[in-house]
Amino acid sequence: MKLLFKTLVRKQRQRSQPIIHLKFHNGNFEIMGLGVWHSYWRDPYHLLLTVPWTGFVLLICIFYIAINALFALAYLLGGDCIANARPGSFVDVFFFSVQTLASIGYGAMYPKTNYANFIVTIEAIIGVMGIAVMTGLAFARFSRPTARVLFSRVAVIVPYEGAPTLMFRTANQRRNLILEAQMRVYLMRDEITAEGQFMRRISDLKLVRQQTPGFALSWSVMHIIDESSPLYGMTPESLNQTNSLLMISLTGIDETVSQVVHARHSYSANDILWNNRFVDILHHAGNGHRYIDYKHFHDVVPLE
């Protein structure tokens, strides 16, 4: 009997564990359902934070109508317990529930029995708690800090000061500063260990400049491919064969809201162009000033 119970518990745990599907699409490593709002259906708080605003408002309306309909049925069970309400009228007791839940209190309808007063008390408590929860959720959705950071569509490997260098560009799309911005670049690729085991290895890429005190305009991120680099000796073919992927992570403090913001991006092996360079976006005006032209932010040209 004890063995049967353990077997049933183990099977139940196996059923409760979700299956995570992984796939490679156009060279990109994708986790199916990652970040999708409906994947949080087992976590209501995260679901309400990630669902689109239209869905959030719709869920609130459905909940509001359902809770009032439930209390309307409770008032109907008490018989003629609401003054000035038509006996047996669901519409009257429903709108009385709306007035009670929102603490409107027009005074036309009011409870006249102890049963009705008891239900009103419960509904008033639920109404206060519901307003507090919905207000907190709406504030949490509005106050979430976000970063508007633009990443170049491709990365390039080009000689720079005599050494092959991985480069990509980023730009701050807001007219403010991201203070103490830190950039981290990781290389993910498939490897087979000496024991013949498969693993997805993550390696750090050392950058020429990993941190800036104020990220305002654009940032050209560079990694020199020397003998200590995980990219040393790699070719376009080997990057594709190992399903290589560059993961980019940017964090900093938004100057306006004084909160930590982050942005992420990825480059597959197909997004890394060899022997190409970015088009220069910094130009000199006739009056001696300089300006940045973001129209060519993503453009690259092959080396001669």
Quick overview of this protein structure:
With 304 residues, the protein is α+β, with helices and mostly antiparallel strands. The protein has helices spanning 2-16, 44-50, 53-77, 90-101, 114-142, 236-241, and strands at residues 22-25, 28-31, 82-83, 110-111, 149-151, 155-160, 163-172, 178-192, 198-205, 211-215, 218-224, 245-254, 260-268, 272-274, 276-278, 282-284, 290-292, 300-302.
Structural commentary:
The chain is of the alpha+beta class. The protein folds into two domains: 99 residues, Helix Hairpins (Orthogonal Bundle), CATH 1.10.287; 154 residues, Immunoglobulin-like. Strands 5, 6, 7, 11 and 14 form a five-stranded mixed beta sheet that branches. Strands 8, 9, 10, 12 and 13 form a five-stranded antiparallel beta sheet that branches. A two-stranded antiparallel ribbon has the order 1-2.
CATH domain fold name of the largest domain: Immunoglobulin-like
- Write down the overall geometry: elongated
Class derived from helix and strand content:
alpha+beta
For the sheet with most strands, the description reads: 5 strands, mixed
Helix count, per DSSP?
Answer: 6
The level 1 CATH classification of the largest domain is Mainly Beta
**Secondary structure tally: strands:** 18
How much of the sequence lies in strands comes to: 25-35%
Beginning-to-end CA distance, first to last residue? 78 Å
Write the layout of secondary structure elements.
Elements: H1 2-16, E1 22-25, E2 28-31, H2 44-50, H3 53-77, E3 82-83, H4 90-101, E4 110-111, H5 114-142, E5 149-151, E6 155-160, E7 163-172, E8 178-192, E9 198-205, E10 211-215, E11 218-224, H6 236-241, E12 245-254, E13 260-268, E14 272-274, E15 276-278, E16 282-284, E17 290-292, E18 300-302
Parallel strand pairs: 6-14
Antiparallel strand pairs: 1-2, 3-4, 5-7, 6-7, 7-11, 8-9, 8-10, 8-12, 12-13, 15-18, 16-17
Helix pairs in contact: 3-4, 3-5
